[in-house]
Design brief:
- By secondary structure, this protein is of the alpha+beta class.
- 47% of the residues lie in helices and 11% in strands.
- The protein contains 17 helices and eight strands.
- The chain has a six-stranded antiparallel sheet.
- β2 (186-192) and β3 (195-205) form a beta hairpin.
- The longest helix is centred in the last third of the chain and has 27 residues, at 361-387.
- The two termini are 55 Å apart.
Length: 503
């Protein structure tokens, strides 16, 4: 404990300006120190008392969802904030001017959590009233500056409560799509999961070089990567939305992990509603036959909470990560020699990564399945060439491979009939699993049949459901990420024993 105390004093020496340094320490260190103390009464009156209070106050700032720069808010953030507030109250021997603001912000978090995405007609006035009592129980600060801040925070909470009780609460989400949804501005009313929504879609046309002087709105007659316009989307939900709450990410990167393991709920809801809206407009109301919405299409978005027509909260958030790199004018010279086409399975993998990174997980998994089958066919040819078994491909597709399992059963159960049954010799479709089994009994491979099939099953698990139209929901990005990892494993390891020539 002595070492922990020394560390806290070093972090927050007497007289230090907290707002200048509290961000110098990472979340893990704050939590580690907090967890090391069982009772915050013990340092009352000690020389380190100021440093401990400064540490706890800084912890409140660090985990305060309303002031910290967070990509989203998980339940553990809220719980950690509450622990720091509680510890600070104990350390200061009661609720001081420092903690009253935090208590109001803690109540606001509870309001958002309690009424998140609940249709207004289902909100119980009695439940809302409990928060009025909690707010009333917090006495105002004596310090004049703290008092002004306190009134501002209290007013935000009371406005939220007024909107919930009076049915006037609204959440507005505004974003842009990088294409035209409809040639005309659209005003749409709808209901989504029991919540009334008013939507406005406003097109802005970008002039093509050919028509730049004519000022005539124009669009490509089919999807084109040349941007021809944008659509401003305004969604007005008749409910309170905790737009910062954590949801599973709809986006992933193919080559590296995302910096954050989730997506703010506002982005997820915006995409889900926009996806349904654009499909309806496209199919039923003469929408432009341009791009189908993907999660990556959601741009930087603003989120606004209104109560009785007055703004209670507003935030602008970036939906996707951006990479910054130094500008260079140096020309990169590349000598490719004779141009040759990239193998199809490599192209399929690249297509899968592209679709994964824009959030189109079903398409990504489709291309991975096309790619893995192409990879296997490619390796069958390479293995045949390397082993001198020129007929290997014909063997893998022969009726013998199809009936091998049946012959094996007969051999085990009726040994006297082994090799005596004439199996049909007409060509039948041989599954990839049977081909892999036959291959492993014919040549020595680097991997075991069991391990290889287990890896392949992670890729093909949803294949039939996708191809036969059984799945109509977007698969989680993690499913594709796992399939991609297994694809790469097979690419590296599906070779002859002690032979890397097939990679």
């Amino acid at each position: 404990m002595e070492e922990i105390e020394k560390r806290v004093v070093a972090m927050f020496p007497p007289g230090v300006e907290l707002f200048d340094i509290y961000r110098n320490y990472d979340d893990e260190e704050y939590i580690k120190i907090l967890n090391s103390v069982d009772d915050f009464h013990w340092f009352s009156g000690k020389s380190s008392h100021y440093s401990w209070c400064a540490f706890l106050y800084s912890g409140c700032l660090t985990f305060n969802r309303w002031t910290a720069l967070l990509p989203f808010v998980k339940s553990d953030i809220l719980a950690t904030f509450s622990r720091f507030v509680e510890a600070l109250i104990i350390a200061e021997n009661g609720v001081s001017d420092n903690t009253r603001m935090f208590l109001l912000q803690e109540i606001r978090s509870e309001i958002f959590k309690s009424f998140d995405c609940i249709p207004l007609e289902f909100i119980e006035p009695r439940e809302v009233g409990l928060f009025i009592e909690k707010i009333a129980a917090i006495n105002p600060p004596k310090n004049s500056e703290k008092f002004k801040e306190f009134l501002t925070e209290k007013d935000k909470n009371l406005k939220l409560i007024s909107g919930l009780l009076g049915g006037s609460i609204q959440t507005k989400i505004t974003t842009d799509l990088p294409y035209i949804v409809h040639k005309s501005p659209l005003s749409i009313t709808s209901s989504w999961q029991g919540i009334s929504i008013k939507s406005k879609l406003t097109p802005t046309f970008l002039q093509s070089e050919f028509l730049v002087s004519s000022n005539i709105p124009n669009q490509p007659i089919s999807p084109s990567r040349w941007q021809a316009g944008i659509t401003k989307v305004e969604l007005e939900f008749q409910c309170l939305i905790d737009y910062d709450a954590w949801t599973p990410s709809l986006l992933e990167l193919g080559s590296e992990p995302l910096p954050f393991d989730g997506w703010a709920k506002g982005f997820t809801l915006a995409f889900q509603v926009i996806d349904d809206l654009v499909w309806r407009v496209r199919i039923e109301y003469g929408g432009e036959s341009q791009w189908i919405p993907a999660p990556r299409d959601i741009s930087a978005s603003s989120f606004e909470i209104l109560s009785d027509g007055q703004q209670v909260a507003w935030k602008l958030k970036e939906a996707a990560s951006m990479r910054i790199f130094p500008k260079t004018d140096e020309e990169l010279e590349i000598e490719l020699g004779q141009l040759q086409s990239i193998p199809w399975y490599i192209k399929c993998r690249s297509l899968a990564v592209m679709y994964l990174e824009i959030g189109e997980t079903n398409e990504a998994l489709f291309w991975l399945n096309a790619g893995i089958e192409s990879l296997f066919q490619n390796r069958f040819k390479e293995i045949a060439l390397a082993t001198g078994r020129t007929n290997l491909e014909d063997e893998l597709n022969s009726p013998n491979v199809y009936w091998n399992d049946a012959e094996e059963i007969v051999k085990n159960q009726f040994p006297e009939l082994a090799g005596k049954i004439e199996w049909p010799d007409h060509k039948s479709h041989v599954s990839l699993y049977k081909k892999l089994k036959y291959l492993h009994t014919s040549v020595k491979m680097k991997t075991s049949e069991k391990e290889l099939k287990a890896k392949y099953s992670k890729i093909s698990k949803h294949r039939n459901s996708l191809v036969h139209g059984v799945i109509d929901q977007r698969l989680p990005a993690g499913v594709v990420k796992e399939a991609l990892s297994n694809f790469d494993w097979i690419n590296e390891n599906f070779v002859l024993y002690e032979d890397n020539s097939c990679t």
